[in-house]
Amino acid sequence: MGIGAYLIYFVIIMIIPIWAQSKVRNTFNKYVRVPNETGLTGAQVARRILDEHGLYNVDIEEVGGQLTDHYDPRKKVLRLSSSIYHGNSVAGTAVAAHEVGHAIQDKENYVPLRFRHSLVPVANFGSGASWLFILAGMFLHSLNLLLIGVIFFAAAVLFQVVTLPVEFNASRRALVQLETLGLIHSGEKRNARKVLSAAALTYVAAALVAVLELLRFVLMFVGMNNDDD
User: Residue 192: exposed, middle, or buried by beta-carbon count in 10 A (0-12, 13-18, 19+)?
Assistant: First the structure.
């Protein structure tokens, strides 16, 4: 691959995440200003859905930052950012319901979620260690080191890929719960879906970039292997 091709490649993998982040921020900022028709805050929406599923043991906490909302399966805590926790926006309703979707997955032992949790230590180690082995393999022209790096990086990529069905499923659960419990009205469902779809783009972008990088490293290994033949 020539220098020009490398530059184009790196521009592409930088633009994809930036575009996805911009999309989710713009969509969130638009609908966080639109109040929902029920007047319920994100915390109230979350509590309603949690209780409906018997998840009385899951606490809801306020956390700082924006779009820092998440479910902690270890402590059984749902953490919502301030604008979601206190706000009664369409965006807040959608995000809160999405995070509750993860709590429901946890309760039901949703297989992709369990698999993702099992990959966390491997992915954390692989994402850091892989670069050391890959760089060492390149500079030392060592196929073995490069292969180890590629394998470690593949573990991190697998985590990104497995995250996709987990997030998509949580969003589907969110929309079903919001509609079934009457927490959004018919005209709000499309806007809630827009918020969740935009958020999903960040995971799709991360997985796409990771897969592209893995492919680059695999081709690098194949090329080095061919040079040694």
Answer: buried
Q: How far apart are CA 10 and CA 7, in angstroms?
A: 5
- Respond yes or no: is residue 99 known to be catalytic: yes
Which member of 99, 108, 167, 213 is catalytic? 99
Q: What percent of the chain has pLDDT over 90?
A: 79
What is the average pLDDT across 162-179?
A: 96
Q: What is the pLDDT of residue 182?
A: 94
Q: How far apart are CA 184 and CA 42, in angstroms?
A: 12
Among candidate residues 95, 63, 94, the one with its CA nearest the CA of residue 79:
63
In angstroms, rounded to a whole number, what is the distance separating the alpha carbons of residues 38 and 183?
A: 7
The rounded distance, in Å, linking the Cα atoms of 199 and 175 is: 14
Let me know: does 158 contact 211? Beta carbons within 8 Å.
no
- Do 95 and 69 meet the contact criterion of CB atoms below 8 Å apart? yes
Closest listed residue to residue 138, CA positions, set 222, 212, 221: 221
Where does residue 159 rank: exposed (0-12), middle (13-18), buried (19+ CB within 10 A)? buried
